[in-house]
Amino acid sequence: MIELSDVAYNYGGAELFSGLSLALAPGSFQFLTGPSGAGKTTLLKLCYGDLRATSGVVSLFGQNAAQMNRDEIALARRRIGVVHQDCQFLDHLPVAENIALPLQVAGRANEAEGNLDELLAWVGLSAQAGQLPPELSGGERQRAALARAVITSPDVIIADEPTGNVDWEMSQRLLTLLVELNRMGKTVLIASHDLNLIRAAKAQVSANVLRLKGGRLQAGVAL
Ligand SMILES: Nc1ncnc2c1ncn2[C@@H]1O[C@H](COP(=O)(O)OP(=O)(O)OP(=O)(O)O)[C@@H](O)[C@H]1O
Known about the structure:
Strand order of the largest sheet: 6-7-8-3-9-10
Bound molecules: adenosine-5'-triphosphate
Distance between the termini: 26 Å
C-alpha cells in the first residue's frame, strides 16, 4: 500500500536517514520505535505524503509520490488516517465536529450522522461530544484524535505516539482500538517509545517492530 525504497531525508543540513526501505503491506501491524530525534515523525510524514523524500522512491498506493501532483497526493491522503502527536484540534469547534471534519473535507458530510454516533460510542466519548477540545483530558483527546483519523474509513492508520501522556490503562484501551481496526483489515503503523505497550500488542496481534536509530532502519526487532 505504502512503500519506501532506498529513501533518504534531510531538513537542509546533514542527512537524518538514508538507504531506508519499508513496506506497509495490506493488513499489517507495525511499530516504529527508536530514540527521540531519530526521525520517527519524519518517516511517518514521508509515509503519508506530508514530506517529499530527498532521494529514493516513496510509493503511495502504487504511485510514485514524487510524480504525483497536489490533488493526487490529497486523494491518496484520504486513504490514510493520521493520529498526530499533538492531536491538532480546532479548539473552537466541539469534539463531535472536530471528529467529523475529515468527512466534510472529503465532501462526504452526509455520512456523518450514523457514523459519528457509532464512532463516539466506540471510543467512549458519547458524553463529551459537545465539549470543546481544551476541556478534554489527555486520554480523551487521544481517543478523539483516533476517532477523527478513522471516520472516513481509511485503508491505513498511521499514529504518532498515540498513547503519549496517558496512563497504562488508557494506553491499553487505545491499543485495543488499534488492534480492532487491524482485525477489520486496516493496515496500522504506530510510532511509539513505549516498549511495554509494544510487548502488550505482540500478545494480541502479529506485529513487526522496526527500530530507527543512527539513520538506519532495522526490521524484525526482538524486544
Ligand atoms: N521542520 C523541521 N526542520 C528542521 N529540522 C527538523 C524539522 N522537524 C524535525 N527536525 C529535526 O529532525 C530530527 C528528527 O525529528 P523527528 O521529529 O522526526 O524525530 P522523532 O524520532 O519523531 O523524535 P521524538 O521521538 O522526540 O518525537 C530532530 O533532530 C528534529 O530536530
